[in-house]
Write a structure and sequence with these properties.
alpha+beta, two-stranded parallel ribbon, 2 strands
Length: about 80
């Protein structure tokens, strides 16, 4: 198990954007969505992208990347079945 220390922290010097961006688009959710969408999936314009869960930050960013790329978006919906 890794224990965080103050030595592992870095100060953000880039203040061209609001610091709150570093908790979203420029932080873990944005980087995860970007890597998954552009680096792993890398769809082309017009292709269909299935997003199984767009309720969280990563899924919402993937949805925006899908729209920006010109892809068709399919959102997965989980429905509880009555038996």
């Amino acid at each position: 198990m890794m224990t965080p220390t103050t030595e592992s922290l870095i100060k953000i010097h880039h203040t061209d954007v609001p610091l709150s961006y570093y908790t979203g688009l420029l932080g873990m959710p944005g980087v995860t969505a970007y890597a998954g969408f552009y680096e792993i999936c890398s769809p082309k314009k017009g292709e269909t992208v299935y997003i199984s869960a767009a309720s969280g930050a990563v899924g919402q960013f993937v949805g925006q990347f899908t729209k920006l790329t010109g892809c068709v978006m399919l959102l997965g919906v989980l429905e509880a079945r009555k038996r």
